[in-house]
Amino acid sequence: MPINNVIQPDKIIVSDRLNLIKYDWKNDYNRIIKWYSDEETLMLVNGNTNKYDCEQIDRMYDYQSEHGELYFIEYDGEIIGDVTFSQQDMPIVIGEKSLRHSGIGLAVIKKLIERAKSIGYDKIFVQEIYDYNVASQKLFKKAGFTEYKKTENGMSYVLNIK
Fold this sequence. Notes:
With 162 residues, this protein is an alpha+beta fold. It has a domain at 11-120: Aminopeptidase. It has helices at residues 29-35, 39-46, 54-67, 104-119, 134-142; strands at residues 11-13, 18-22, 69-75, 78-85, 92-94, 123-130, 146-150, 154-160. The strands form two sheets. The protein has a five-stranded antiparallel beta sheet with strand order 1-2-3-4-5, with helices on both faces. Strand 3 (69-75) and strand 4 (78-85) form a beta hairpin.
């Protein structure tokens, strides 16, 4: 169980068009490999353009699902990104570029803040957003996160939950 004594739901409904689907399979890489082969996406995620192969995606998803709740972001029935929820971090990738800056990321983060409240967290963190990833900085600040501490390549953020 990634979060002690907490059962991860199979599906979280965010809106009538948007859901979070529990990660539990490793067989459809066509869409995912596209995201993790795209240089722009990779720079935002990792700060480099080193493309992932299927084994690297498996390792990444295994790590994320062992350290939090890993979800695919589903929009209008299509998988368009992924997000991991834990108290320590909330990495989110909107893999489909045409859907970035559309409000999907903010809706997902707000729904995961609700989840954090329901679990009883008093704070949640984002480990690092790179200095040049202004869109992610704005996204998390709009969701209520504040700068917490300087990191090697950017800033970590915290949200105090009341």
